[in-house]
Amino acid sequence: MKFFDCITAPSPRRVRMYMTEKGINIPTVQIDLRSGEHLRDEFRQINPDCTVPALELDDGTCLTEVYAICEYLEAVYPQPSLVGSSPRDAALVTMWNTKIEQQGLGAIAESLRNFSKGFKGRALTGPVGFEQIPELVERGRHRAEVFMQVLDAQLANNDYVAGEQFTIADISAMVFTDFAAWIKLSIPESAHNLSRWKDLVSSRPSAKV
Amino acid sequence: MKFFDCITAPSPRRVRMYMTEKGINIPTVQIDLRSGEHLRDEFRQINPDCTVPALELDDGTCLTEVYAICEYLEAVYPQPSLVGSSPRDAALVTMWNTKIEQQGLGAIAESLRNFSKGFKGRALTGPVGFEQIPELVERGRHRAEVFMQVLDAQLANNDYVAGEQFTIADISAMVFTDFAAWIKLSIPESAHNLSRWKDLVSSRPSAKV
């Protein structure tokens, strides 16, 4: 297998953290998003979506999308489980991971990519360029603020995001709360549950990668 | 279990189609999105995200997000498999389903919800109102057009979206191509592979629900 990473970007970091929790080591290639290496022909032939992370399997199959890559690795390296052990618990992990991707990570990306000069003409990921839309800067920020409250409420009755076990949903939520700093957004003081959880998960070795 | 549906909406349709393929019957409650029933306290207490589909389990757990609901049902009703039989195939189903949700269904929703008078002040799903942004009408439409080409290219070498078996990715793609009609977008004549696939999947009983 070969892992296509970008050390500065939040999406591949989720897979790096997942691999750290599992103790998985896979030969890794860095793709420099800042210089546009993901848009060049060489990488486009590996992943036509021009995104990282990507995982190339030994048969040449290229997996993209964080949750799909982790699902594959979970099947190959099942211990320790990071996806929930019963059908109900596994579905809750998928549910929370989806919410974090769409309402959390997606909201910050919306604000950042429509604001930063570095994303001019590249407001969305993928091979097609899209212009920035100024109204989305504030919309994305507000969505991310709302989602911090959603996570705080969920963590009032649960040690971890999807229940009583650390799972991939916590990895995604950790990256969400760290990615928020890119738009100068931090966990509000009133969000005691989210702060307590952040302290708890920040002590894990995976938080350092 | 209890299934919360809205007969006119694309997201719960994906779960209805999935249940039809499996032969699953679950007591169903219709939530009338047009009159705002999803935003009223009674449903908000079931699903604070104010979205359908939702699946209430017998222990009171409420599952939301289409893929999470289908993952749960797949574990309880494994036959016939709709998620791929090897780790590689299952990951490809998740990967394609994610792309269809974000790049396909999400694109049409972006165009529709920022255009239609019925979504004024409700440009995003969820309990918080967001104003329409006119630039997103065309952006969403263009993204959906691009994604039709992506699907057409994928179907050049595969009978079904994620490979040689009919899976939940085909259900999501069927709903994407039908939902496109809401913004008066149809499969382009040049997309021969996508048209061939659409004819194939349209003959299934699940396409009628």
Question: How would you summarize what this structure contains?
Answer:
Two copies of one chain form a homodimer. The first copy, chain A, has 209 residues and is an alpha+beta fold.
Walkthrough of the structure:
- The structure is a homodimer of 209-residue chains.
- Chain A has 209 residues and is an alpha+beta fold.
- Chain A has 2 domains: 2-76, Glutaredoxin (3-Layer(aba) Sandwich); 87-208, Glutathione S-transferase Yfyf (Class Pi), Chain A, domain 2 (Up-down Bundle).
- Helix content of chain A is 47%, strand content 6%.
- Chain A contains 7 helices and 4 strands, in the order βαβαββααααα.
- Chain A has a 4-stranded mixed beta sheet, covered by helices on one side.
- The first copy, chain A, is globular, with a radius of gyration of 17 Å.
- The mean pLDDT of chain A is 97.
What is the CATH class name of the largest domain in chain A? Mainly Alpha
Average pLDDT level of chain A: 97
Instruction: Tell me the number of strands of chain A.
Output: 4
Helix-strand string of chain A: EHEHEEHHHHH
* Strands in their spatial order, largest beta sheet of chain A: 2-1-3-4
Q: List the uncertain runs of chain A.
A: none
Largest Cβ-defined interface: A-B, 39 and 39 residues
State the major sheet of chain A.
Answer: 4 strands, mixed
Q: The CATH topology of the largest domain in chain A is what?
A: Glutathione S-transferase Yfyf (Class Pi), Chain A, domain 2
CATH architecture label name of the largest domain in chain A: Up-down Bundle
Helix fraction bin of chain A? 40-55%
> What oligomeric assembly is this protein in?
homodimer
Distance between the termini of chain A: 20 Å
Tally of individual domains of chain A: 2
